[in-house]
Amino acid sequence: MITPGSTIGILGGGQLGRMSVLSGRRMGYKFIIYEPSAGSAAGMVADKEINASYTDLSALEAFGDAVDVVTLEFENVPTIALSVLEKKRPVHPSKEVLGTCQNRLKEKLFLRTNGIPCAPFEVVHSAEELSQAVAKLGLPCVLKTADFGYDGKGQHKIVGTENLAELWKKLGYHTGVVEKWISFQGEYSVICARNEQGEEAVFPVAENQHVHHILHTTIVPARISEALVKEAEDCALLIARKLNVIGLLAVELFLTTEGKWLVNELAPRPHNSGHYSFDACLTSQFEQHVRAVCGLPLGSTALLRPVVMINLLGDIWKYGEPDWSVLLSEPSVKLHLYDKGEPRPGRKMGHFCVLANDVEDALLSARKLEAALIASTLKK
Asked: pLDDT value at position 152?
């Protein structure tokens, strides 16, 4: 057990790390962030930030010497970094878990091997194989790079008008995954936690709405049947056990038009769709992350009130700083800004949550507040 007062090392300096630091500080932990770029959102609230490449062996050694346990806040970390660090300190998630979840091919093969439902897919290594896969899976379908990728990056929808040879050459993939296009009625996610003692906990299923492949709205509780909730929770916990995850695992799911679950992606860390838990659950995903990687007992994930979370992207700053009083004048709203510097289009700069006694009321209020916030910038 890594007790309060110890130092937690986090690979990655984004907002997920920032909120993990803010939660862990309340429990008495210290934090060191390892991030290539100086002045990261997480580094600003940590005790120390080390700026070096994820392949800088000497810097990784120094980082490992300075902390008591290592975790991460995003997947785009080379597994060699974890190989170096695990010789010095406990590392959660493990390099095996990271290696599976950061590579779409390994992830899909893991799901298929363990009988976990996912979209039909084919692995391709050339333009010829791409053509064969498209013929087999039918149109439309989606070509994804095998390595990394998030928020829609590294993927291309194929509708039949493309020159596949030119597309393959343009994208420059060495290995790709072609997935059958799925007709679905909704996108959802489940975040679960496991510690070394085998204790497990699962957060309420979240209903997610995306705009341009980026999460825009999260609605909790999800507006689905109790039977579907139980199936989604059981699926997430099964995957976490099969992977032997220590820490958090976010499972993104499609609910097909036939009412069946299909797993889309896995993320062994806090997740954008779990931001609501900071304000609406007895234990947030960020505190749970700290508890799990430190071997502490897990906290209750009980939902205190229905909640809707809206992402704030850099696009909102197009005409200047928004009038935050639009949100803060509402007593049921919680605003979170990440202090990430330049508000570029598509960049996640913050979020706000609206809590209510009824989820539909929360959603209606969130939509009105978002529109008012955007209008506040247009008036300037």
From this structure: 54
What does DSSP say about strands 184-194 and 200-202: parallel, antiparallel, or unpaired? antiparallel
Of 162, 143, 161, give the one whose Cα is nearest residue 153: 143
CA–CA separation, 53 vs 81, rounded Å? 9
pLDDT of residue 170: 85
Question: What's the confidence (pLDDT) of residue 380?
Answer: 58
- Residue 290's closest CA among 51, 98, 30? 30
Which residues on neighbouring strands pair with residue 247, listed in sequence order?
194
Whether residue 7 contacts residue 70, with contact meaning beta carbons closer than 8 Å, is answered with no
At 83 the pLDDT is 96
CA–CA dist 309, 352 (Å, integer): 6
Write out pLDDT tens, residues 306-362: 999 999 999 999 888 999 999 999 999 999 999 998 899 999 999 999 999 999 999
Residues lower than pLDDT 70 in the chain: 148-153, 379-380
Report phi then psi at 354, rounded to 5. -115, 125
Q: What is the pLDDT, as a whole number, of residue 173?
A: 79
HEC assignment per residue over the chain: CCCCCCEEEEECCCHHHHHHHHHHHHCCCEEEEECCCCCCCCHHHCCEEECCCCCCHHHHHHHHHHCCEEEECCCCCCHHHHHHHCCCCCECCCHHHHHHHCEHHHHHHHHHHCCCCECCEEEECCHHHHHHHHHHHCCCEEEEECECCCCCCCEEEECCCCCHHHHHHHHCCCCEEEEECCCEEEEEEEEEEECCCCCEEECCCEEEEEECCEEEEEEECCCCCHHHHHHHHHHHHHHHHHHCCCEEEEEEEEEECCCCEEEEEEECCCCHHHCCHHHHECCCHHHHHHHHHCCCCCCCCCECCCEEEEEEEHHHHCCCCCCCHHHHCCCCEEEEECCCCCCCCCCEEEEEEEECCCHHHHHHHHHHHHHHHHHHHHCC
